[in-house]
């Protein structure tokens, strides 16, 4: 690679005093993508990236192998409505997931196919919800990666479009009335979001308001009609806050447009969800006074907290994740250090009736069953070498059998180990380490993690991890505080004032890999996206000597101004707000953009963004790129700082081809700067 200077980026003499602290922001101008200077700088960065990427080690080999592994397809569990089952599937030849439906005769057909809706490949299915009898389907589409959904309704039998579009319905749940004449949904307004009732064919601008007036603009709602269509539950949380308010309404007691919402939980810092069981009792899954989760019951006539009775008590070592009703039993899902287990329980007493056999040691999720109960339940299963497939459990014979597999894969041989280590403060942390058989010398290694929003890094089939290990590397996934691997306390230990714990855990994971002979600092790359991109940004600015390479995708990096764009305001409960002096100190203390210093040997860094990302503003990566290019002592191409921009895509669902390209570029960049020898 030829040594070429970085594209010039002028530094503003911009210093603001925030709560008495001078805060420099020399690349504020890069926040405006329409500014001519930004456009010129960005074009130069893209050209520079393409020049480098052409020489990345093993790029085409990784693209080919990642494509084979990623394109194994996907199958989702059935959602039963009347005699119809609805499910998502993606074959190895399709770019996006397609919604299928089966009738009473078991024959299946594609009901909603984004490839047919938009041959240009810019439209995706964001969500869908059939009516209780399966006659109608409400669904949401967005285009170009924006996630700005519009809502439609079609007739399942004929495919006729009956209603829509209803705009401003991003992330809106849909809860149908039992007769399919109307549904509850959430719509965004200038002052925030609100719950409305929409009757088919009516003007959405006249939809009656059910809930939302006067609530915080970041309020997030969850809606459900349960108990055979009689009961409406509404949950509301501030953005992504782990606690929620919860109401229940008897739809037989008042008009649907004015349900009498009765408080179940309000002003409580805990997460609770309610379902009405086949026996007419309330079943609540909650972490209230049980950070690993429990299932409680109560009579619908008395939902006071004092009346709740434990049915499935908290397990001190396993985290409750889901449950479904079968005939007289509950099927309960838990994870133990992220590994799934399913058990059967008596629905009246909670007594354990026995384990449910699983296909392996991995992840069983997305439980589903028929609304009326029955002897069968479905779930998706995956592990480190098994693509996602759907399995069916039948309690009549106690067997678990395959129900749907999307495709075949030829995964490499992999040795998977769960490694425990002590973090900076002595807390025991775990990571899963994938390596080629035989062990041996220290190898180039990728360390990844997330550590936020209660999300668990559970075992799962990863084209990125498998392609790397097959090429001779080690791939490690750290289970950091801030995630949900050990319950809600684990999450809260890595959010807000405790966010530094996530980064300390990550550094300790790297040190463990090095001390254990898995790798060396010159062979260690770190990779993360979104909140994981923040993790990588913090790691490379706090401990630059520990890492040889870093890939930071769709990242949050300017934590002083993250609330000003994208979905930032919804994440204040997770990170804090710069408007609060105490919380500003947390944010500024680790904000990667503000921690860049001149004359530091930063690792080779690749920042990747999508230009239509409406969750995390690409400006974070632009500003960080300019700061690192200014600060690093490697001012030529030997240890570069690069910016990769993907056009016409967003933060979430993307075409398979785009996903494979990103994997190939990530792995070949890491291979180049960790010295992975490609045979």
Automatic annotation (TrEMBL):
It is an enzyme of class 3 (hydrolase). Its EC number is 3.4.21.26. Residues 460-675 form the Peptidase S9 prolyl oligopeptidase catalytic domain. It catalyses: Hydrolysis of Pro-|-Xaa >> Ala-|-Xaa in oligopeptides. Pfam families: Peptidase_S9, Peptidase_S9_N. SUPFAM superfamilies: alpha/beta-Hydrolases, Peptidase/esterase 'gauge' domain. One of its GO terms (biological process) is proteolysis. One of its GO terms (cellular component) is cytosol. The keyword Plastid does not apply. Residues 9-404 form the Peptidase S9A N-terminal domain. It comes from the Bacteria. One of its GO terms (molecular function) is serine-type endopeptidase activity. Keywords: Hydrolase, Protease, Serine protease. Belongs to the peptidase S9A family. This is prolyl oligopeptidase. It comes from Nonomuraea gerenzanensis.
